[in-house]
Structures are given as C-alpha cells and as structure tokens.
Amino acid sequence: MTTLDEHYRLGADAFGSRLELVPSEAWAQTTRCCPDWTVHDLVNHVVNETMWIPPLLLGETIADVGDRLDGDLISNDPLGAWRRASGDVLEAMAAPGALDRAVELSSGPTTGAKYMAEVLSDQIIHTWDLATSTDADPVLDPALVTFARQTLEPLAELWRQAGALGPPIEVADDADDQTKLLALLGRRAT
C-alpha cells in the first residue's frame, strides 16, 4: 500500500518533470484548462498552494501566514521555487503528528492528512494542465490518477459550487481512468 508520503513524492516528481520541460516562450501562453491563466500563473498557483502546506501542517493558521505568500512566488526561477517548496512539504510531513494535527482551512477544520490529499490531488490535475498547455507528456501515473479520483470524487460538487471546477463531462463507461478523472473535473482528455 502506497503511503501519502510516497504519493506526494511521486506527484511532486511528476509536476517537476513537466516543469523542467517548459520552453521559455510558453510562460506567457494561456493554459488549456483555465483561459484566464497563463502557464506562469498556473505554476505560480501550484507553488503557492505548496508553500501553504508547511506552515499549516506545523500549526500556523491562515491568519498567521497572512499575506506572506501573495504575489509572484516563482519569479525567474520557477523550477527552483518548485523544488524548494516541495522539499519543504516533505520535511513538514515528516514532523511528528503533522498529518494527524487539525488544520484550519477557509472551508473549516480538517486533518493534515486530508488537507495533503486534497492539495496533492489538485497538483496532480495541474500536472496534466501544465503538460497539455506546453505539449509535454499528459499521461499521468495510474497510481496518482487513482489517488486523485478517490480523493476528489466526494469533493467535486463542493469544488464545482465554489467555482473551482467546470461542469462534469460525459465519457464512455469503458474510458480509461485518467479520462474519467479529467471528465469528473470538467476537463476533456483530447
């Protein structure tokens, strides 16, 4: 059985490997998933979400973090920012009790483990978004697809109501798991 730590490492590597391949001319392009975002905006969003994890897992509140994670967090070194942020997450996850601790989110309290699962699932989807927006390999690791689908299926309607997802897309019953996950989240695989 794969642990949350192992899933996180696999997901971080998947995002990082796509990030390494972003050509310089792609940063200002709009993304396939979110026409209001450029590739730069998408990567900054993922790094921002990732940078929130350590302080919240280690007991800080949203108010404690305040605005210190606002703005452009990737500047001229997106890959370096990603590596630092994801490395900090691994350290925070390893802290005693971090995944069992109550984490206060804007949506209410949850455990560190549930918070990590939600953020990782969002990161997995954004790995596909980044790949399809920069002509990288969009095929996600099946273990990550299963993890994200199990995490997001019960949350999809709530996220949709909050405006984070588009309407679900109908796909054939025999569609592969990645296509079904993307459809659940309002994304077309092709």
Question: Any overview of this molecule?
Answer:
It is a single chain. By secondary structure, the chain is mainly alpha-helical. It has one domain (4-184): Four Helix Bundle (Hemerythrin (Met), subunit A) (Up-down Bundle), CATH 1.20.120. Helix content is 54%, strand content 4%. The chain contains 8 helices and 2 strands, in the order ααααββαααα. The chain has helices at residues 4-19, 39-57, 62-65, 78-94, 112-133, 142-152, 156-161, 177-184; strands at residues 102-105, 108-111. The protein has a two-stranded antiparallel ribbon with strand order 1-2. β1 (102-105) and β2 (108-111) form a beta hairpin. α1 (4-19) packs antiparallel against α4 (78-94), α2 (39-57) packs antiparallel against α5 and α5 packs across α6.
Q: Mind telling me the CATH superfamily name?
A: dinb family like domain
Shape: globular
Strands side by side in the biggest sheet: 1-2
* pLDDT < 50 stretches: none
Largest sheet: 2 strands, antiparallel
Please bin the fraction of helical residues: 40-55%
What does this entry show, briefly?
This protein is mainly α and 190 residues long. The protein is built from eight helices and two strands; from the N terminus they run ααααββαααα. Helix 1 runs antiparallel to helix 4.
List the helices and strands and how they pair.
Layout lengths: L3 H16 L19 H19 L4 H4 L12 H17 L7 E4 L2 E4 H22 L8 H11 L3 H6 L15 H8 L6
Antiparallel strand pairs: 1-2
Helix pairs in contact: 1-4, 1-5, 2-4, 2-5, 5-6
